[in-house]
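[READ THE FOLD]
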Amino acid sequence: MGKNKTRQNVFKVAGSRSLKAKNKAKAVTVQLKKATKNIVQSRTEEINRQLASLNEVVRQSVPEPKKIIANLVEKEEKSKQEIVEKYEQEVRKEEETLDELANFNVGTEGEH
């Protein structure tokens, strides 16, 4: 009955030595390194292939924008010509109406 038990502190924080032992970094296996290297290499090869095909497409389509620009310039010239023609037609109509007004005879004042 009289055994002398030492009471342990319930709220004791673990010592730094035990934490360091548990959290030690572990070495990466060689196979994992090889697997990641193969994955990265295959991805870069796939991206290089895609970039090469994209490069070919871009180089083939270089003359096309020149045609588009030429078409836009032609459309602008046509639209400018249409605007000029409309303006000339309006001027002719104004001249005709002015001529008609000048030739219009107003009746004499005594006729009602």
Notes: The longest helix spans residues 63-103. The radius of gyration is 47 Å. Helices lie at 16-22, 30-60, 63-103.
